[in-house]
Structures are given as structure tokens and as C-alpha cells.
Amino acid sequence: MELPLPLHPSLQRAYHILEPWFIKEIIPASGHGLLSSEERWSKDLLDLIPEAGKSVATLLGKRWREDPNESTPAEKWEQLKRHIRILIGRGNGAKESKTAKTMDNKDKNRLENWHIEVVFRHTYPRLDINVSKTMNHLLKSPFCVHPKTGRVCVPIQPEEVRSFDPFAVPTLSQLMKELNDYAGNSNISETLEGAEKEDADKKKSRTPKNEWQKTSLKGYFEPFQHKFLEPILKEIRRQDKQAADKQAAMRGDF
Q1: CA-CA distance, 12 to 120, in Å (whole number)?
Q2: In whole angstroms, what is the distance from residue 63 CA to residue 25 CA?
């Protein structure tokens, strides 16, 4: 990724939105840990600084290695940005405005945008063109089935993001087995007599109306229904009623 200079206004806005998330979720040990250990900051950050800025990588790498707890990940990130600004002559004040005499404009521009590239690399949404143009790639739609693995694409809640296990979601074969098992248990209950038959009838009265309620999809679909579909339907009805009331008021139908 090589960004233009000056940066397009839309990219500037994106950077100001994404950097706080980068600091909160990407660099600390509680997140992705990009600046939480020497192994990570060396391999995944300092080693990727353009050649013209290797002196900054050497300086900060030595400082952080000698005393890794001297500064927090957020402070390390600010140190890195400040030293690069000084190197390209963008520092604050006369003491921090010394420009590298041997650095050409291309290298300066590359370094000036480098920290923005890092933030975008780790946080900017990635779009897959095949998801948009090919039918069998529409895996972002809830409850689609992956053609190779058979896994169902399920919606999750925001609080489940960190604990979500994509390998634990239901597969198409698993759902078929669950439906068959449910049907088998229902057939057994129909053969019971007397008190057992009465209990079975009570159980039958509570039989789920929808097929998905008989499977492990229930745990995914019910929150999706209550927190997404029903509020949308409620809002549509509210707008329809508002529009009908407005039309009635214009016609004088009270």
C-alpha cells in the first residue's frame, strides 16, 4: 500500500476514525499485541519501516528492548510517529525540524504517510470483489452455507466477537441430522399410551412452528430475530402509520 500525498480528504477522515481503534485494539497486549512484545514490534512494525527511516527503527528498537516497560504501547506509537516527523523535518520547534539532507522528496513522502498506512493495514475494512459479483461467494448474508465446508454463516452479537469460534458453527449435515433426530423422537412419542400419551400430547402442543427452532440454529436465529428483524419491522410499521396519519390529516379524515 502506498498512499498519495497530500492525502485525500476521505482517507484523512478514515484515519482519524480508525487510529483510536488501532491504539485500543491493535497495539496493546489486551488486543492484537502489535506493540506489546519485542517479537511483535520488531517483526511486524519496525522491520516494515521504509529504508529511509531505518535509523528510527534501530534507535527505538534498542530503547524498547533495553526497557520494554518504560512506556505503554500507546506511548511507543507516539514515539515512533514523533521520531519519523523529526527525521523528515516535520518536528515541532527548531530543535525538532532538522531535515535529513540526503533524503529525497519521494522518501520523505513515503515516511510521512507510513504511520497512516500501518493503521489502514490493520484496521481498514477489506472488500472482496468476488463477494459482490459471484453468487457462490455471498457468504456475508446470514444463514448462507459455505459450498466447501458446509458451515452456516451465522450472525453474532457484538459482545461475542472475541469469544466466537467459527469452527463451532452448525454445518448443513449437522442440521439435517438434528431435524431427523427430532422427527424420530416425535414418532416415538406418538406410540405411547395412557399417562405417557397425555404427557406426549402436552409436549406436542409445544412443538416449534419453524424448522430452525428444532436445530442448533435456534441460538443464532432468535437473537437475530429479536434484535434485528423485529426492530426493523416495528420501524417500518411506525413509518407506515405515520404516513397514513399524514395522508388522513391532509384529506380531513378524522
Answers
A1: 11
A2: 24
The total of other beta-carbon atoms located within 10 Å of residue 230's CB is 11
d(CA 45, CA 169): 34
Q: Is residue 201 within 8 Å of residue 189, measured between CB atoms?
A: no
Domain boundaries, the chain: 9-123, 129-168, 171-215
Under 8 Å between Cβ of 148 and 125: no
Q: At what angle do helices 73-87 and 105-123 cross, to 10 degrees?
A: 160
**pLDDT digits over 114-149, tens only?**
999 999 999 987 777 776 677 666 556 788 888 888
* Residues 6 or more apart whose Cβ sits within 8 Å of residue 78: none
Residue 252's alpha-carbon distances to 49, 237, 238, 246, in angstroms, are 71, 22, 21, 10
pTM for the full predicted model: 0.57
What's the DSSP call for residue 102? T
Residue 151: CB atoms within 10 A of its CB come to 18
